Amino acid sequence: MTPLVDNGTTLNPEELRKMNAYWRACNYLAAGMIYLRANPLLREPLKPEHIKNRLLGHWGSDPGQSFTWVHLNRLIKKYDLNVIYVSGPGHGAPATLANSYLEGHYSEIYPDRSQDEAGMLQFFRQFSFPGGIGSHCTPETPGSIHEGGELGYSLSHGFGAAFDNPDLIVTVVVGDGEAETGPLAISWHSNKFLNPIRDGAVLPILHLNGYKIANPTILARISHEELESLFRGYGYTPYFVEGDDPETMHQKMATTLEHCVLEIRAIQEKARSTGNPERPRWPMIVLRSPKGWTGPKEVGGHKVENFWRAHQVPVLDPVTNKTSLHIVEDWMRSYKPEELFDETGKLIPELLAMAPVGPRRITANPHANGGLLRKSLDLPRFEDYGVKISAHAKAMESPTAVLAIFLRDVMKKNMTSFRVFGPDETASNKLDGIYAASKKTWLADYFPEDADGTEIAPDGRVMEMLSEHTLEGWFEGYVLTGRHGLLSTYEAFVHVIDSMFNQHAKWLEKAKNELSWRAPVPSINILITSLVWRQDHNGFTHQDPGFLDVVTNKSPDVVRIYLPPDANCLLSVADHCLRSRDYINVIVADKQPHLVFLDMDAAVNHCTKGIGIWDWASTDDCVEPDVVMACAGDIATMEALAAVAILKEKFPALKIRFVNVVDLFRLMPEEEHPHGLSQRDFDSLFTKDKPVIFNFHSYASLIHKLAYRRTNHANFHVRGYKEKGNINTPFELAIINQVDRFDLCIDVIDRVPGLQATGAHVKDWLKNEIIDSLNYAHAEGIDKPEIRDWTWPE
């Protein structure tokens, strides 16, 4: 059984009185945010016109969260703790907002929401109101690094914040509804990756208030023994604070929370003094309190407090129902605001003194505005890691293997502020060169055979776990508190974090464009690899390049997509992304050996432009071309080049312009994206009326979406993945999706006036080549040698 904490009289009567009064003030503000548009201190009888016309917000978890916050404040002051707070319950912002307001930090950021009656009224009016703020802990909320719009990520964000922050305690309140999500369920295992020597601590508090929107919660309806066994099985020491009497609960929480903080300190001191990071059993708390605690017990004959009806707005019709209006008034007056706020509307001095001061205030902690702590990476010269070539498209190198050597030295130079994340695929993705700088973090058990290639260590900086959700959550928590990193994942399964990407993009858009007080944070860098065109053995299930479509739906101010065609271009792109701030950079680069098209100098110039003509592959020689051959992506580029080589041989007089795209958003108009090309530059590259054959890594429709407003869009013929595949050879897969060199040549013949008749014999030969290639693949299991070993014929 879990050791019992002495729940006696940790608080003396005066401490108890003040803490309970401060908690009442928090609850009063939370209720006021939901209901009031006038009469903020109830200095006159409550009238219908004082109530908001639309009642929005969630009350149920707020009292329990503020209860936790008040007790954290006591310990921050007593032990000079460095604490941030992550609110997991959905729509749980009123608690954080109320505490930020009482701490004074909210008024420092938003002076019109001052600590007086007029400011309190503005504070109430803004909540869930047009032109105001939402009911989640949005970026507008001081102290927040976790929006909470989608449930399941609070704990992984908390652990990400604790990594490499040895002095920080991250208190994560996990909602019991949130605890039913898959991402949250697996993130409990993050404790196996937290090193007590170099990292901070995470104190999870599972807030069991029993209900979701309209249903009981699973963890609230299992036995105490089963719940305790669950968390002991996860590797924690769980402590229980349960009840509904405020006085008793304050004493229990004060004792238990202090015990947990001292236990965390003891764990860290032991590990740091002995140098032994052996995985401890970190403490966690189960807080079981009534849903909607201290609110109305019953409304209209229906149970409210400690039932699902307290989840959102407990009393729905106070404007039109006098009985309901009286219930709201009695409820809010039960907090005795006249005892809490002075005649100006400011919290009385003895309660003001309950909060920490300066950056020790939870909502003013700089870790929750991580850009304030951000330091640029110390980056080596990426050019020094380039592949030296003597000719275009002759040498073969794995782009990610080349990148790994650069990342190895990035890590060596930044051993407290840079991590690499990936779901059990660092070696598979040819990034294992990083291990020369640091192994994979691991604090669970070791076996002797692990010494033979497992590459795990308690002080590793490569974060591997077979949960993309948890990895992305760690990464987001890490960058939002000011540090840097890169996440690599298989292309087909980056979709697992589609909605996480969406949430972070929305956070960045708000923070970057609307909140000058939020300092820029390092970018999220996502390396998509193990790409669609080289799924030789995984087959159809691993063929999905559609994440790029998801990315293009987000604000152009915060998303970037790069498709470096070779290893040297990947180095240039990676360096740029690691230096950037306030973006989500998506990099598409394969792990298999690919041709190196450009030397390092040319790669830097090309990536700097983001799009450009490759003169060495073109035949238009500064005159108007007959056709533009365009491409984006490694295999797409190789096949487009191979098509040009065939066309040069078969039609020597044909004028071809070869255009490669690295920065996908260059295709958009400059009015729609900061990286977009002007119309004049676009027309210069793609002409106003010539056929454009565009070979694309992903789904063809995306190119049309980006370029639909362009002058020559009607002449764009895009080839891309068509959702056709199986266990194919690389070239067979290209053929069945018609991104192969032969089909591209046919497209040119079909679309260039004059070739439709004269090119008939060549077209027939191309069709024969397609048939022969497919037959060879099915007979031999590999592609023909002239396909496998193709290089640019200079």
Automatic annotation (TrEMBL):
Its cofactor is thiamine diphosphate. GO terms for molecular function: aldehyde-lyase activity. CDD domains: TPP_PK. One of its GO terms (biological process) is carbohydrate metabolic process. Pfam families: XFP, XFP_C, XFP_N. Residues 591-792 form the Xylulose 5-phosphate/Fructose 6-phosphate phosphoketolase C-terminal domain. Coiled coil: none annotated. The keyword Plastid does not apply. Keywords: Lyase, Thiamine pyrophosphate. It comes from the Bacteria. Residues 12-372 form the Xylulose 5-phosphate/Fructose 6-phosphate phosphoketolase N-terminal domain. InterPro entries: Phosphoketolase, THDP-binding, Transketo_C/PFOR_II, Xul5P/Fru6P_PKetolase, Xul5P/Fru6P_PKetolase_C, Xul5P/Fru6P_PKetolase_CS, Xul5P/Fru6P_PKetolase_N, Xul5P/Fru6P_PKetolase_ThDP_BS. Its EC number is 4.1.2.-. The keyword Lyase applies. Belongs to the XFP family. PANTHER family: PHOSPHOKETOLASE-RELATED. This is Probable phosphoketolase.
